[in-house]
Amino acid sequence: MALSFVKLHGAGNDYIAIDGRGIDRDWGDLSVAMSRLNFGVGSDGITLVQESDVAQVRMRIYNPDGSEAEMSGNGIRLFAKFVIDRKIAVPGPEGLIVETGGGVRTVVPTMDGEVMVAARVAMGEPTLTPSDIPVDAAAMGNPDRVLDYEIEAGGRKLKVTCLSVGNPHAVVFPEEDVDDFPLLEIGPYVESHPLFPNRINFEIANVVDSGTLKARIFERGAGETLSSGTGTTATAVAAKLHGFTDDTVRVQVPGGELQITWAGEGEIYLEGPAVEVFEGVWQD
Question: Which of 203, 221, 247, 261: CA 20 to 30 A from 237?
Answer without folding.
Answer: 221
